Amino acid sequence: MNFFTCLLLGFLVATSGSIVPSYLNLTVVKYSLVSGKNSALYLIGGFATVLFFQANIGAYFSNVLMKNSEYITLIQKVGTVILVLLSLNFFRLHFKLINKTKKILIKKSKAYFSGIGLSLLNTIAIPFYFTSISLLISLDYFEYTLLNSLYFSIGSTLGSFSLYALYAIIATRIEHKLTVIANKMNLILGCLTAIVAIGNMVYLYTK
């Protein structure tokens, strides 16, 4: 397989996964509204850093047919607990900051490391890449090698960064239309992380 094919496949898989509403893209919107586009881009940089490795891990697991699936289960269990705590924190912030809509400055380093932390909590990412790459392999669109996995991960990183950046840019341009959403962003994020946590619990219980 050539570099551009793997790059394109990674780009398409990542954008298809990132376009679905999640606490990651809603957090991008929140950062963009609260602290501006630059802080949101640093947050996205944190997302992209972790996503590069998640795509590689997903590709590796697809190649070995989930022989080490117990590790993913462990990650999901830990991630579920943290998601519950994260959800409670978002609810706390919503009721603490209700009716306070003034902009605040978020340091670039804080935004970047927040992006890394939130992306690490995204326990769906590795199973998503595993499933997507396994499907591509079964359709003979992808052949696993270390180089192909690297190229795919680069494409995935570029795809997610581009889509999240688009969220950030659009949010700043229609800010006046998002006032109500901005006021309730922490509440929305709290509900979304709670739903993801409950979904993980149901999956782990029925597994």
Question: If you had to describe this structure to a student in words, what would you say it looks like?
Answer:
There is one protein chain. Helices cover 80% and strands 0% of the residues. It has one domain (3-76, 102-183). It contains 9 helices and no strands. With 207 residues, the protein is mostly helical. The mean pLDDT is 77.
Encode the helix/strand succession as letters: HHHHHHHHH
Distance N to C terminus: 35 Å
Low-confidence segments? none
Structural class per helix/strand content?
mainly alpha
Supply the number of helical segments: 9
Taken together, the total number of domains comes to: 1
Chain-averaged pLDDT:
77
Tell me the Rg in angstroms.
18 Å
- Main beta sheet strand tally, sense and closure: none
